[in-house]
Every structure is written in structure tokens, then in C-alpha cells.
Design brief:
Helix 4 links the parallel strand 5 and strand 6. 37% of the residues are buried. This protein is α+β, with helices and mostly antiparallel strands. It is built from 5 helices and 7 strands. The N and C termini lie close together (7 Å). The site of magnesium ion has 3 residues, from strand 1.
């Protein structure tokens, strides 16, 4: 078994939605990002890479690479899972926390869980998604952006 964690932050900018876990969530702002700026998938990708000892998302998917301009961040997770499979590693479970004042996660939480379960090819219940505010404190509390944290457990074939 191997454990990994990941964190990602994006500033809000012009737009009418944010992507969270591959789900389009209507919002008063978009995010400033090279890719689609999905903080959940970026944190998850970093957690997967970290658990496997494979560095971080920036090393594998540079944010200056024109290939990733506006990219669907599900690609980063899928490509990372390919690397894990080559090392005979698979996802046991994942726990994700979204930190933001808005958008509220309750209406989309289940949809994000189902999307992540499908993406990670795990059984129902193996992905948990939580949300918290920062009690109006700091840049998240002022509504300047959105953050996510992810923790994953990887299982080896031998586990
Ligand atoms: Mg990011």
C-alpha cells in the first residue's frame, strides 16, 4: 500500500462555471488556468503521482505546454492511471476536500463522486468528496479562488 496527497488552488476569473472533478458547476466566475483549472482533478493527479513516487503534475503536464491549453483535466488523471498500471498499482480509495466559500458543493457532490469513481475505476463508495469554507478567512474566505486537497491510497497487486 502507498499513500499520497495533493493540493491545488486556482484564482477566480471571468467565466460562468468551474470544473470540479470533471463536473461542470455553474458559478458567477470561472478560474484562471492554462487547462480547464479543475482543482479537484489537479489535486487528485498530484496525490496519485505522490503515492507512486512519481513527482508532481507540473513535471508530467507542464502548464506552458500548448497541448494542455484549455485541456480537460480528466486526461491528466487517465494518463497518470496508465503510469500506475504499468507499475501494477491501482486505486484503493480517495478522499477529496474542496475549500471555497462558493460555489456550494452540496448540489453536485454526488455527481462528482460518481464521476471520480468512474474515472478512477473503483467501486461505489471508494471516493469521498467533502467541502468546507475557511470561515471567511484568507484568500479563499474572500472568495478570490478555490482550492482542493486529495488523499489517495494505492494498492499493489500483491496487497
Ligand atoms: Mg491546477
Amino acid at each position: 500500500m502507498r499513500i499520497g496527497s495533493g493540493v491545488d488552488v486556482h484564482a477566480f476569473g471571468p467565466g460562468d462555471h468551474v470544473m470540479l472533478g470533471g463536473v461542470r458547476v455553474p458559478h458567477s466566475h470561472g478560474v484562471v488556468a492554462h487547462s480547464d483549472g479543475d482543482v479537484v482533478l489537479h489535486a487528485l493527479t498530484d496525490a496519485l503521482l505522490g503515492a507512486a513516487g512519481l513527482g508532481d503534475i507540473g513535471q508530467h503536464f507542464r502548464d506552458t505546454d500548448p497541448r494542455w491549453k484549455g485541456a480537460d483535466s480528466q486526461h491528466f488523471v487517465r494518463a497518470t492511471l496508465d503510469m500506475l498500471r504499468a507499475r501494477r498499482l491501482r486505486v484503493g480509495n480517495a478522499d477529496v476536500t474542496v475549500l471555497a466559500e462558493t460555489p456550494k458543493l452540496a448540489p453536485v457532490r454526488e455527481a462528482i463522486c460518481r464521476r471520480l469513481e468512474a474515472l478512477l475505476e473503483v467501486a461505489p463508495g471508494a471516493v469521498n468528496v467533502k467541502a468546507t469554507t475557511t470561515e471567511k478567512l484568507g484568500f479563499l474566505g474572500r472568495g478570490e479562488g478555490i482550492a482542493a486537497q486529495a488523499v489517495v491510497l494505492l494498492l499493489a497487486d500483491a496487497d
